[in-house]
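Lecture 7, part B: from sequences to assemblies.

Below are the input chains for today's worked example.
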Amino acid sequence: MNGDDVQLADVVAVACAEAFRGDGEIFASGMGVMPMLGARLARATFSPDLLVSDGEAFFVDGDLPVGASVATTDDAGIEGWIPFRSVFDLLWGGRRHVMMGASQMDVYGNSNIANIGPWERPSAQLLGVRGGPGNTINHATSFFIPRHSTRVFTPDVDMVSGIGYDRAARLHPNARANHRLARVITNLAVLDFDTPDHRMRLVSVHPGVSVDEVVANTGFELVVAEDTPVSRGPDAAEAAAIERLDPRGLRHRELPKAS
Amino acid sequence: MTADKRITADEAAATIDSGMTLGIGGWGSRRKPMALVRALLRTDVTDLTVVSYGGPDVGLLCAAGKVKRLIYGFVSLDSIPLEPHFRAARQNGTIAEPVEYDEGMLQWALYAGSLRLPFLPTRSGLASGVTDVNPGLRTVQSPYEDGEELLAVPAIRLDAAFVHLNRADQRGNAQYLGPDLYFDDLFLSACEPGRRFVSCEQVVTTAEMVAAGPFQTLRINRSMVDGVIEAPGGAHFTTCEPDYGRDEKFQKAYVEAAADPDTWAAFAERFLSGDETAYQAAVAAWREEVAAP
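Predicted structure of the full complex, as structure tokens:
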């Protein structure tokens, strides 16, 4: 597959899957279509020991397409039961890597899904902090951001639902032992925090996207290397797995065709 | 023979006084005790402290102006992420005392309450916005050689609790048949005896209940329950698997109606102005209407 005909949603699916590479036998938990596809793609290809769920209460055995139910899918079944209380037990123990959304994120990875504007009386109430504080302090967290913009990547976030590296650094060593923000995948690029002071770094740009475009759509200073690689598309096995896991093409609704 | 605890939803709601702390079971838009919430909407109770993994229960109580203090980790309709009435209440500042916790902290607060402990320690919430906006939260230091500082989540004791299960007997033993108990047992256990209410799809004999599912479904025993309310469709429009799934069309109509005060007034008049029987009849009529070509 060459760079000209690769679809953006497939590049992003692979990038989401890559976030779980090397995670071993833990719960790869995706919130939303693309993170869920990423987790299942990683399990179907290079990280076969991962556990993935149906987003309800079951660990899935086999390739369950995104948006489908284990009850109505012949090729996938159940390998375990994971009701919410067990999710909490498991995540506090650290054996989980979640990929979720964020409405705002700063240079150290502090993230916000709770509200926009002052918490006391927000201009836009969103979900609330949900499990973000517990997720980020207890296990690895990655993010999928479908629209990379200066509205999302902001100098400060209005409410810290997920803790970034500057806040984690102030914690007792045991408390921060599991804090790890692995990857941030957007419609433009892949980012991480693998820098000496854990500021956000540009890892790769998606095909057809320039470094300048990423920088211009980021509201703080990114760490950018001299040569930034281009995010890879799926290999043959991955492309086949993506088709099995998303035969309806739900991924394309989240990410229109490559720019 | 132990007591017959069967009462009506309105009798349960009549025991709730203004200013009380009410815990509501379920999760988001899943197996919410909506018949009990609707009964509470018909009272003049106000100034409640509500504790919930919030969904339309929180939304409706906010829209009715009954919530003074809300202890929550989120409020969501699941398939529709944002709850419109909760959003409006937060954006208009009508919840006087919002208390926002991490989801796991909320479990810990209820668990501490159910065990009669003053608090339980956790890492979840440390260094996050939760501690920024809840300045009353305190930490404790591990007394062992690690010396780690942990968040001390204060116990919640409830004055009243509402949960909705699939089956119950008249003595208050109750059963869930769906994929997840959520935290319904903790809401009941963290509540003072007297106002612990279980609504259910069906009141059956104890033997019938035991036969309806494996022993592991029998997580609510009668020492946790003061009143049993038979309320078929009592979780509508939220899920009550396997009896019924979420009424997605109705939930969508609820959200659309909530977008505007006039359409909401019409929705409330149509569906929420009568008792539970009237509600279920209005929903049935609405279903026929939207199914018509």
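Note for the exam: DSSP finds nine helices and twelve strands in chain A. Keep this in mind when comparing with the next example.
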